[in-house]
Amino acid sequence: MDFSTFNDAERAHIQRLIEQKQMRDFMKFYTGLVERCFNDCVNDFTSKALTTKEETCVLRCTEKFIKYNERISLRFGELNQELMQQQAATAAQQQPGANP
Fold first, then answer.
1. What is the per-residue pLDDT for 61?
2. Which positions make up the signal peptide (predicted)?
């Protein structure tokens, strides 16, 4: 999206909206991570401390969840870049005087 047509106040407002969306997305990711790993790993509530087995499970779960998210983000970036290149190529072909 081209923000050059917006004035400074509009750009600042859009930037704040983007930052709020990113924070919501991060909090959703974090909450999902905590909920999933806790539910999968913590089973014994007889002590306030995690057992060694539970702690190991939580660490592994967290690592897997983060790696999974990184992989999805990387793939999304690749697909987005391909889409942008396709759109640029299509736009170039539609320009008057462009060679087919």
1. 96
2. none
